[in-house]
Amino acid sequence: MRVEVRDLRKSYDKEVLNIKELSFKEGRITAIVGPNGSGKSTLLNIIATTLNKDEGEVLYDQKAKAPLSQMTIVFQKPYLFDASVRSNLSYPLKIRHIPKETIEKEVQKIAASLNITDLLKKNAHDLSIGEKAKVSLARALIFKPELLLLDEPCASLDPFTTSEIEKTLGFINQKEKTTIILITHDLGEAKRIADEMVLLNKGRVVSKNSKEAFFKDEDPLVKKFINGELLI
Ligand SMILES: Nc1ncnc2c1ncn2[C@@H]1O[C@H](COP(=O)(O)OP(=O)(O)OP(=O)(O)O)[C@@H](O)[C@H]1O
Ligand SMILES: [Mg+2]
């Protein structure tokens, strides 16, 4: 799904987002990077429609109406229902009226691919942070969304779990042609899985480029960010 953002503005006590034009390519993985507070989550939540914009528009395949049944967001703080992991994973299929037997098959499949089969009976609230992150991702992937929005899916995960999640995202992107927009603070992760890069600073787009071009960019602000220096 192609996503386009135009003349987007969002303010609280001050302006936190001001984007003239930004588009996300269909079937690609775009990483949004930028300092803390630069507006990454605000942008992702506006695209997800979980947050209202003040001005501007977001187009999904050139339409203003968000195709909610074909898209999903995994929030920065995973929220899971106070129920078993199996119920959490089944939910997106249940509300789509998928037959019970198919649901159980899909639950088993996604659980196996993320190595969480042993957790199916556990209550989601009892899981560790890493386990919660995997279950949240599994719940997002189970209905094969066309647009997947991920807010720091690998934050505070160990290298092995990070690698499991990155491989799953790469696989899903290849197999289902899912458009993925993910926020990350890990430039190594962006290098490993992204096709495209967006750098935000103070609510504005500083750079939007292919990954290859981004990491070679001579722009002083982009170079500073890549080198881990403070942006002003
Ligand atoms: N509900 C809110 N009320 C007031 N200010 C808010 C609210 N939500 C976000 N902000 C402000 O908007 C700005 C952008 O926040 P946002 O969460 O989008 O940043 P971010 O780039 O995702 O940061 P991080 O990397 O820390 O997650 C910040 O200055 C934040 O304080
Ligand atoms: Mg954030």
Question: Could you name the key traits of this structure?
Answer:
binds magnesium ion; globular; binds adenosine-5'-triphosphate; 232 residues; alpha/beta; Rossmann fold
How would you portray this structure in words?
- The protein has 232 residues and is an alpha/beta fold.
- It has a domain at 3-80 and 145-226: Rossmann fold (3-Layer(aba) Sandwich), CATH 3.40.50.
- It has helices at residues 40-48, 85-94, 100-113, 129-141, 159-176, 187-193, 211-216, 220-226, and strands at residues 3-11, 15-24, 29-33, 55-60, 71-74, 147-151, 179-183, 196-201, 204-210.
- It contains 8 helices and 9 strands.
- A 6-stranded mixed beta sheet has the order 5-6-7-3-8-9, sandwiched between helices. It has a 3-stranded antiparallel beta sheet with strand order 2-1-4, with helices on one face.
- The structure holds adenosine-5'-triphosphate (ATP) and magnesium ion.
- Adenosine-5'-triphosphate binds next to helix 1.
Provide the gyration radius in Å: 18 Å
Largest sheet: 6 strands, mixed
Q: Given the C-alpha coordinates, what overall shape results?
A: globular
Number of strands: 9
The distinct bound ligands, ions and cofactors come out as: adenosine-5'-triphosphate, magnesium ion
- Count of helix runs: 8
**Which fold name is given in CATH as the topology of one domain?**
Rossmann fold
Strand order of the largest sheet: 5-6-7-3-8-9
C-alpha end-to-end distance? 34 Å
Low-confidence stretches: none
Order of helices and strands: EEEHEEHHHEHEHEEHH
Strand content of the residues, in percent?
Answer: 15-25%
Specify the CATH architecture of one domain.
3-Layer(aba) Sandwich
Give the structural class: alpha/beta
